Structure to design on (428 residues):
């Protein structure tokens, strides 16, 4: 986080399989409920460690030989069900206090976890109606944790197939789907549904599936509902999830894709989007070159960075050491994160949004390198909106396939991508 000057985020993932469990002293993956219980304590412990250093603990007095004021560094004495950590952290707080906390669960437990801890949520929906229901549900849970709807950004994943004509876009989609390896597709689908489909005919329907799962509950429900609603065969389902992995697929001209983005973002379905191009670098190039200019003309996408230090961190006003996250309490009852015992947000918590209500859309990518202005050179990113004017891009990047690192001669292009920001008063 120090190398990136604060531009870092933490995608909090609870994991789903035995393969992951066996890398962490477990023979099998814990139950769904246990994973979220453990994740909550993990986040609380991590935020307590970040807060174990005061913002001004580092003295850096070379002449006196003093690096930090020991009185401003303290142990956390966490003694919980899953973790016992004395602390303090063995390095200072990062420039933005805490990394941006991102989460992707859409189950009931996942939504409660997000409402309590997350600042951005990745989610998958196959219709704008489903996205609106999720959006209203999750935003409605925030008040139970003393948070406002503006403190959490909801970013559905979209996989855009873009053509200069609708026919060209459809051709791209069908061409890629024709390349799906059936055996791999069935393995991928089996893992997603938590059931072995290898003995079932590819051109037959999904078999009756047991209720519930200890795996990805929301994704299983989404895929099963899709297969049932459209009477898809196993082969057809594998094609539908091969690129977007259950996320919504936009297929059309740049104008049609921009129309869909505007519909979702203006009708309570999304604060922004996690862009998942089906190919690299071409799919990303299509979005940047063909869709972004349309969004800019409509006032939905920035044209420049704003604010005094817009590319420094991932939060508005989160200068060095400013952000303390509201994370709960330790086993001993002491506040963990950003609230006093009375529940009030600390005075030094600058996560609050600016007074003006302007919305903003951002383009952000993963930071393999930093350009001279502090904006990260990147490959894939999330188009995120309804954030505060002056907020730097949100902090996570992902794609449907392997990430393409730009060659040196492409760096100026990716710098240009990151300069595409600006406020959007139309989206309040």
């Amino acid at each position: 986080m120090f190398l990136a000057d604060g531009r870092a985020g933490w995608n909090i993932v609870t994991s789903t399989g035995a393969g992951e469990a066996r890398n962490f002293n477990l023979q099998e993956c814990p139950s769904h409920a246990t994973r979220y219980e453990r994740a909550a304590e993990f986040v609380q412990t991590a935020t307590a460690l970040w807060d174990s250093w005061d913002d001004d603990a580092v003295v850096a007095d070379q002449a006196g030989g003093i690096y930090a004021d020991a009185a401003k560094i303290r142990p956390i004495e966490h003694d919980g069900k899953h973790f016992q950590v004395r602390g303090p952290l063995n390095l200072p707080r990062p420039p933005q206090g805490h990394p941006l906390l991102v989460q992707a669960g859409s189950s009931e437990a996942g939504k409660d976890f997000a409402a309590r801890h997350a600042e951005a949520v990745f989610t998958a929906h196959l219709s704008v109606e489903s996205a609106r229901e999720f959006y209203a549900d999750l935003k409605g849970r925030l008040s139970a944790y003393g948070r406002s709807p503006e403190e959490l950004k909801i970013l559905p994943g979209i996989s855009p197939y873009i053509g200069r004509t609708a026919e060209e876009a459809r051709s791209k989609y069908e061409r890629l789907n024709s390349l799906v390896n059936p055996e791999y597709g069935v393995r991928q689908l089996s893992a997603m549904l938590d059931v072995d489909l290898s003995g079932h005919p590819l051109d037959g329907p999904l078999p009756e599936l047991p209720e519930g799962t200890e795996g990805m509950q929301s994704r299983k429900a989404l895929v099963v509902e899709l297969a049932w609603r459209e009477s898809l065969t196993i082969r057809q389902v594998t094609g539908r999830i091969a690129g977007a992995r259950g996320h919504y697929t936009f297929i059309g001209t740049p104008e049609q894709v921009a129309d869909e983005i505007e519909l979702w973002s203006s009708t309570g379905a999304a604060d922004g989007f996690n862009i998942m191009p089906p190919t690299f670098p071409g799919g990303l190039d299509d979005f940047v070159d063909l869709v972004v200019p349309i969004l800019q003309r409509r006032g939905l996408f920035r044209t420049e960075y704003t604010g005094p230090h817009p590319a420094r961190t991932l939060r508005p006003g989160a200068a060095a050491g400013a952000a303390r996250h509201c994370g709960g309490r330790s086993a001993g009852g002491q506040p963990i994160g950003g609230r006093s015992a009375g529940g009030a947000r600390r005075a030094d918590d600058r996560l609050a949004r600016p007074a003006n209500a302007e919305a903003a859309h951002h383009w952000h990518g993963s930071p393999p390198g930093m350009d001279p202005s502090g904006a990260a050179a990147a490959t894939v990113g999330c188009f995120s909106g309804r954030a505060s004017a002056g907020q730097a891009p949100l902090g996570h990047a992902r794609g449907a396939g392997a990430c393409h690192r730009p060659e040196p001669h492409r760096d100026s292009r990716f710098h240009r991508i990151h300069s595409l920001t600006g406020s959007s008063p139309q989206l309040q």
